[in-house]
Amino acid sequence: MAMLEVTNFGKRFTIHHLGKTMQAIEQINFSLDAGEFIGIAGKSGSGKSTILKSIYRTYLPDKGSIVYDSKRYGLIDLAHATEREVLYLRKHEIGYVSQFLNVMPRTTSRQLIEKAMLEMGEPTAIAKIEAEKALNHFELDRELWDTYPNTFSGGEKLRLNIAMATVKQPRLLLLDEPTASLDQQSKVKVREIIEKLKTNGTTLIGIFHDIEFMNGLCDKVFDMRTRAIRSPKEGVIREG
Predict the structure, then answer these.
(1) CA–CA separation, 143 vs 8, rounded Å?
(2) Which of 5, 13, 28, 95 would staple 165 via disulfide (CB 3.0–4.6 Å)?
(3) What is the Cα 112 distance to its own chain's centre?
(4) For residue 204, what are the β-bridge partners?
């Protein structure tokens, strides 16, 4: 049984002031098993982020189904899940990392990561320990731990964003260009965490413009141009 199966998925956007509706993507089909990592490749504007945001339900899909094998709900179509179900899944099962940090105001870096752990039901003592481990791993300066992240650089915000999502060890993790503004050393830290999550059974979907970063990491690639699944190193291995 697949962990996630996307079937005949399509998404349109309406530009209300122009009275126009545009088809962003259509006929997207792919699936992945538990513990697999699929990369989504394609040019800018091809709809890669739209797929991830629709799985996370930031966007509401127009066509098709996105069936996820949830630990709590069993097989659930994310395209038709209730808001309550979506909120639960975001908090406990599905993580999302983007290039941008959107967090609660007046909350420190340490508190944000601790909160992520507490949402998973971890005791306060464990949350504090794991938060420090994550902050250390991503090499955020100790002076920033008890500081509000609105003052951080772009790279620091991104590292915090990744720490908040990965500390939960989600069942499904969506990565939307998470290394876009990171230096090489920080990219290595991200890769280490992804490899560890994958080893522990997390299923991952990622968008990376850095092709070298994907080498040896993804099990397969979904090509937006051909709508086909291929090996990261070979040609098309089966139709998507």
Answers:
(1) 48
(2) 95
(3) 18
(4) 37, 173
In the block, residue with structure tokens 């990965």: 166
Between CA 79 and CA 5 the distance in angstroms is 12
**CA dist., res. 211 & res. 93, Å (int):** 27
Cβ atoms within 10 A of the Cβ of 66, count?
A: 22
User: Domains along the chain?
Assistant: 4-101+172-239 (3.40.50.300)
DSSP run (H or E) holding 135: helix 124-137
Query: Would you state the pLDDT for residue 60?
Result: 92
The pTM (predicted TM-score) of the whole model is 0.89
Question: CA 197 to CA 213: how far, in whole Å?
Answer: 16
Mean pLDDT by 10 residues, the chain (240 residues): 93 85 92 95 91 95 95 96 96 88 80 92 94 92 92 83 89 90 83 90 89 83 91 54
Helix (H) or strand (E) holding 194: helix 184-199
Helices 154-166 and 124-137 cross at an angle (nearest 10°) of: 140
Q: What is the pLDDT of residue 236?
A: 41
